[in-house]
Amino acid sequence: MTVRTRFAPSPTGLLHIGGVRTALFSWAHARKNGGKFVLRIEDTDLERSTPESVKAILDGMHWVGIDYDEGPFYQMQRMDRYREAVKQLLASGHAYPCYMSKEELDAMRAEQEALGLKAKYDRRWRPEEGKVLPEPPAGVQPVLRFRTPLDGVVAWDDLVKGRIEIGNIELDDLIIARPDGTPTYNFCVVVDDWDMGITQVIRGDDHVNNTPRQIHIFNALGAAVPQFAHLPMIHNDQGQKLSKRRDAVSVVDYDSAGYLPEALLNYLARLGWGHGDDECFTMAQFVEWFDLKDVSASPSRFDKEKLLWLNAQHIKAADAARLAGLAKRFLDEKGLDLSHGPALVDVVALLKERVQTIVELATGAEYFYQPLTPSAEIVAKHLSSDDLARLSTFASEAAALEVWDTASISAFIKEFCKSQGVKMGQVGMPLRAKVCGTTHTPSVDAVLALLGKAEVLKRLA
Ligand code: GLU
């Protein structure tokens, strides 16, 4: 049987880190097994779903690079199909109309609570052999309820959590259609997973409670029950569930903070899954190694430092031309004119070994296009009158240099230090401070070579 998995976000906010991790594991399971990965937008909550959120999900998936083979399917476009499936259950006796009004429901609940019982539908409209049902009230549209078995258990072997068993007595007769005929959440999910031929439902473990109800609906529809894998939640560094308000959790935030999508995915892959001691890997390796049985059943902790470290590793491994394209956006935002100065790709090649984010890369590139103003601290430390006098001598001697590349500049600086009777740092740091405006640069000979002789001499003057 072909493996088919899906990611089924509700478009009620931005695409967040937890959602991406779910999508990633679901995608990896399909890719690993030569299967198909489906994207489904669960937009039936009309009050909370927005087109902006749909766009954020699609853009976010595109940015991280999780591709899908089918979809996006929209539940709101499948209403006729759900209505048809509701009819099927009504015809087979798995569903029945319930005419209880809101007032009656409230009164029943209040009574149960007063007795210290869990509030639960008392099945008063559930047809049973020999039971006489009340006369349906005139002009009332009923809800449709699912006829949950009264005894026995519903069980599944969760691919992450192991065997889970729930007594049917714990489950209510779930409402599957509202008075206006619109199907409810758990019902739509089952019809979709059935129609889309989903073989493994991989989702957050906040859905564990829905699974027994959904299994009953699968069985009632005569559909094959898929396997389930419930992924544990991600916690922040205080051990709290990651929240949209407290933590930076939207994928676009990582884009604007200068993270590479492959670093974020690498990091998310390690949240609750591992392959020996491997920390830094590509998505191709992840797919090759991925197995749901290696997913941990306990929550994992989001560690910003580790994500930053991984980002640095992926930046080192990335192609300089691509990184230059990514850094350009941040330099453009600062209004820098990149046509005056070295090719950005060369600057990036020099800097990429030493930065953790693309934002840092762009910041590090700034002084190649415009000298920075050194801080008072740098001036005090590296640009004393002695330093300036020495730089002036340096400039006039450097002007005579015929070859201007890293090797010849390096040799020249060494010679110069010797003739001045000073250490390398006593020339290197003032040179950086004067030419770049910062002392935080790669090796000074390489920086001067890239800036070009004319520009260096101009800045020294
Ligand atoms: N739409 C649900 C959510 O966003 C997921 C449902 C499912 O995966 O079954 O949490």
TrEMBL record:
A motif ('HIGH' region) lies at residues 9-19. A motif ('KMSKS' region) lies at residues 241-245. The keyword Aminoacyl-tRNA synthetase applies. It catalyses: tRNA(Glu) + L-glutamate + ATP = L-glutamyl-tRNA(Glu) + AMP + diphosphate. It holds the Pfam family Anticodon_2. It comes from the Bacteria. It is found in: Cytoplasm. Residues 323-460 form the Aminoacyl-tRNA synthetase class I anticodon-binding domain. Keywords: Aminoacyl-tRNA synthetase, ATP-binding, Cytoplasm, Ligase, Nucleotide-binding, Protein biosynthesis. Its main location: cytoplasm. GO terms for cellular component: cytosol. One of its GO terms (molecular function) is glutamate-tRNA ligase activity. Residues 3-309 form the Glutamyl/glutaminyl-tRNA synthetase class Ib catalytic domain. ATP binds at K244. The keyword ATP-binding applies. GO terms for biological process: glutamyl-tRNA aminoacylation. Its EC number is 6.1.1.17. HAMAP family: Glu_tRNA_synth_type1. Belongs to the class-I aminoacyl-tRNA synthetase family. Glutamate--tRNA ligase type 1 subfamily. Catalyzes the attachment of glutamate to tRNA(Glu) in a two-step reaction: glutamate is first activated by ATP to form Glu-AMP and then transferred to the acceptor end of tRNA(Glu). Monomer. This is Glutamate--tRNA ligase.
